Amino acid sequence: MNASLSTALTRTLWANTLLPEQLARVERETTERFIEAGAYVCKKGDQCEHWMGVTDGLLKMSSVSPEGKAVTFTGMLAGGWFGEGSLLKTEVRRYDVVALRDSHVAFMPRTTFNWLLDTSIGFNRFLLNQLNARLGLFIALVEYDRMLDTDARVARCLASLFNPDLNVPSGPQLQISQEEIGYLCSTSRQRANQALQVLERAGLLRLDYGGLTVLDLEGLRRF
């Protein structure tokens, strides 16, 4: 394992739930892949053989209906892990995951994941918290997709990237382009820009070069 992947694993939300020997096995058996911007990390219908985590970059979890209608479920920043539901249910993936920028993704084999379930109470508790957080996120997604306008959808989408149970907190700054925000919120870059200006005037965030700074996270969640 390379040093950067080892460092990324020790900074995950679940690493401190493991014993040193457990973390050592995870480091031995987990691999990392480079995913170019626009490429698939995994596709809907794929057999699920790994638990995956973002070590660097930005991913989008989405699905497209047979009629071509697309829905975005969530974005995932460095520190976010996904796919535990498909592993636990031993089913094919129900969604696509695409890299919105050049990214690095860690792949933990199913055997390692199941071994942690069998040997670590702390890891099981982490998974319960993560599954509960993701359920809340998806319930909110249905609500605001049907009830809120674009400005509010952008606010809630940005706030979801700061969910401490799903992504490793890295301060109020977020390096993300307006085009990427549009992809995550299922809107155009131009409309995302308009929404961001509304949120900036409301004092909820500040637009920076190449990203933004959140000034009022609770305000974004309530907007």
Could you walk me through the main structural features you see in this protein, from its secondary elements to its overall organization?
- The protein is an alpha+beta fold and 223 residues long.
- The protein folds into 2 domains: 3-122, Jelly Rolls (Sandwich); 148-222, Orthogonal Bundle (Arc Repressor Mutant, subunit A), CATH 1.10.10.10.
- Helix content is 44%, strand content 24%.
- The chain contains 9 helices and 11 strands.
- It has helices spanning 3-10, 20-29, 84-89, 110-119, 121-147, 150-160, 178-185, 189-201, 217-222, and strands at residues 31-35, 40-42, 50-56, 58-64, 70-77, 81-82, 96-99, 103-109, 173-174, 205-208, 211-214.
- The strands form 3 sheets. The chain has a 4-stranded antiparallel β-sheet.
- Helix 6 (150-160) crosses helix 7, helix 6 packs across helix 8 (189-201) and helix 7 (178-185) crosses helix 8 (189-201).
- The chain is globular, with a radius of gyration of 17 Å.
- The mean pLDDT is 90.
SSE inventory with pairings:
Layout (H helix, E strand, L loop, with lengths): L2 H8 L9 H10 L1 E5 L4 E3 L7 E7 L1 E7 L5 E8 L3 E2 L1 H6 L6 E4 L3 E7 H10 L1 H27 L2 H11 L12 E2 L3 H8 L3 H13 L3 E4 L2 E4 L2 H6 L1
Antiparallel strand pairs: 1-8, 2-7, 3-6, 3-8, 4-5, 4-7, 9-11, 10-11
Helix pairs in contact: 6-7, 6-8, 7-8
Tag the structure with descriptive keywords.
223 residues, alpha+beta, Jelly Rolls, Arc Repressor Mutant, subunit A, four-stranded antiparallel beta sheet, 11 strands, globular
